[in-house]
Amino acid sequence: MDINQLIQEYHPMIYKICRVYSDEYDFDDLYQEISINLWKGLKRYEGKSKLSTWAYRVALNTALTYQRNNSKHRNKTPLSESMVPASSSDEAAEKEQRVQRLFDAVRQLEKVDRSVMLLYLEEKKYDEIAEITGLSASNVGVKISRAKKQLRKLLEGQI
User: Fold this and answer.
1) Are 118 and 17 in contact (CB under 8 A)?
2) Is-above-0.85 flag for pTM?
């Protein structure tokens, strides 16, 4: 698989990670950084885990490093409406606002919880999340349960 195919296949995952780990000003930079790291790492990919697991790990590590290195410059405001695709119907716009509020709430979680929830929202299985994050599957379950409770509190009355 070449890098263009890899990025095209994992675009939704990269997009969601960038949406959670960056603001509107850093979004493109983080997306590019993840793409570069995937490209650099693809030569060293040994096939010990699934390609999707490896790609998630690279993307999450890149996002965490990027966030840590840019935290003093990070704007805590939600993504602007310009980052949200235009919608022709009120229902679609309302749904996008709910999704945006969810991502804003996920952004408030601790780093590990944020990573776990992002993978959970990608509908990854507990064992896949465990492999990507380095946690045990039972710990993943506990973190998801706690993060859901925290998200409910953060989103109470908003969605």
Assistant:
1) yes
2) no
